[in-house]
Amino acid sequence: MSNSSPLPGDAVPERAEPPTAAGERPLLESWLDYHRATLAMKCAGLDDEQLRRAAVPPSELSLMGLVRHMAEVERIWFRLTLAGEDAPPLYYSEADPDGEFHLTDADTWADAYGVWQHEIEQARERAARFALDDLASTTRNGESHNLRWIYVHMIEEYARHNGHADLVRELVDGTTGD
């Protein structure tokens, strides 16, 4: 996908089907990209108000919040954990641990999408430096993780949140599908 924002009215983002026979790394990377594209598809064609809408009160879960959350997750696992970089939070804080979901009228899809795509590109660059069995530069909760585990976790994280995105999108405008 390109770095330009798929703003309302734009065509649905491209999503390549993962190969049915491939080596382990290409398979993991293609499934992760598939799920990244799925989340973008769930957001396509909506305006900022619709993307900010928390469709199931009292939950604050929104499509824009999910995209901001996944930008944080990409940053945490690939930049902070895998590469050991100083990568402070984008949206949350100790005082507001769910800050990515606390949206205001000033929060835009263009900004959220741009940050998310930037973090995806940064994640790809960091991951390219590691073999699947290489351990991350830092531990999380005292545990070491290799790149393989991080890829599988990211696929799981996107798949779970894409399920949420399905439900939120249907409640926002009635659109269903994969």
Provide an overview of this structure.
There is one protein chain. The chain has about 180 residues and is mainly α. The chain has helices spanning about 25-45, 50, 65-80, 110-125, 145-175. The chain is globular and about 45 Å long. It starts with about 25 loop residues before the first helix and ends in a 5-residue tail after the last helix. Residues about 1-5 have low confidence and may be disordered.
Order of helices and strands: HHHHH
Mean pLDDT: 93
CATH architecture: Up-down Bundle
Strand content: under 5%
Top-tier CATH class: Mainly Alpha
Termini Cα gap: 18 Å
State the fourth-level CATH superfamily: dinb family like domain
Shape: globular
**Low-confidence region ranges:** 1-5
Structural class: mainly alpha
Radius of gyration: 16 Å
Largest sheet: none
Query: Could you say what the CATH topology is called?
Result: Four Helix Bundle (Hemerythrin (Met), subunit A)
| Number of β-strand runs | 0
Number of domains: 1
As a percent range, the share of helical residues equals 40-55%
Number of helices: 5
What's the SSE blueprint?
Elements: H1 24-43, H2 48-52, H3 63-82, H4 109-127, H5 147-173
Helix pairs in contact: 1-5, 3-4, 3-5
Short summary:
The protein contains five helices and no strands. It is mainly alpha-helical and 178 residues long.
Keywords:
Four Helix Bundle (Hemerythrin (Met), subunit A); mainly alpha; 5 helices; single chain; 51% helix
